[in-house]
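Students often ask why we bother encoding 3D structure as a string. The short answer is that it lets us treat folding as translation between two languages. Here is a chain of 406 residues written in the first language.
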Amino acid sequence: MAHPAGGFYSAEDADSDRSPADGGGHAEGAFYVWSKAEIDRVLPPAVAALVCSHFGIEAGGNVPAGLDPHGEFTGFNILKQVRPLAETAAALGHDIEVAADRLGEALERLRAVRTQRPRPHLDDKILAAWNGLALTALSRAAVHPAECLADKRAFYLEAALRCARFIERELIDPTTGRLLRSWREGQAAIDGFAEDYACVTAGLLDVHQATLDSHWLALAQKLQATLDARFWDEAEGGYFSAPEGTELILRLKDDYDGAEPTASSVALGNLVRLSVLTGEPAAAASSALAPYRHRAERLAQGFRSQWSTAPHALPVMLCALADWLAEPAHVVLAGDPRDPAFTALASAVHGAPPISAPLHLLTPDCAEWAAGMTAQDGRPTAYLCRDLACQPPVTTPSALRALLDS
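And here it is in the second language, the structure alphabet:
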């Protein structure tokens, strides 16, 4: 689903034509599923046995009948890892390194065979909002402490950066700074809607948290300012779906987080994060002193009747509200981001257990209140702050973890 230039395509059809060897016809998942007979045909016997054992491949197919109401997967298998590779290797009497090499070679062979099948139709337009959601997923995966992601973090981070650069290059008008909704074959068209601005802003904030590159924070702030200027409902609070001046009979505000969250729900989270990252005082009531926090309060109040009477309809907004009501917590990292010691401090934050408030990472150039925080004795240094009250600086991951646990 990735475009070579960095963005992500919108969708791929679920169904496609089966090859004559598999009986022909049009079926869901035809491009991706495998019969055991085909596995045995294209792989050597020992390797086929390894693949079948590791991915749960069965002669009659591995999709339960209850999950296949139309019978499209009868006799076919969806490759799914059913146990750790070490267990598969032990069950077959293989050394783990040998099993890993054979499995990698087998997957390459299967991928080559699959390219000969008719591909499902690809919807190759690139939508801003959906790419913003992809930015969030990739950036969070890149810093998530789960062990199963350890060897993929660099891959996810690079994918996030490629997508962010694509959005900045192809979907933001360099003259007006406005976001465009879609791109296809080198052509970008249609002004962005509120969901585009909200989702891309959220994604850029996540890229910033993964990289601590202030460029992405600054770009997120610019998009937030444009969203505020063009979509904000000054009378009632919240964001209209379409900008002012469009030829619409009604300008609507979505109030239901369905398959995609509403623009206002995502934007509330963005405003809360921007308020914390820029160091707005939590107690400030003035919009001049705390514009993000002030707008967040108005937005939340504007949707109060919905989230107070039907909270299940706005789960994303409620998560943002919980963050807004929590005591803000920052970790300011000073020093050279290229220094492995700097990376180790950032990893200590990303791997910290949940605390009473979300943690926000920033560098001294992000907010005026953090500008005086410097590296101690030339070593990357961390400052843990809650509501702008900071602990003494530390320079080791263990000391930082101790502060986070206290």
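Translate back mentally: The mean pLDDT is 91. Keep this in mind for the problem set.
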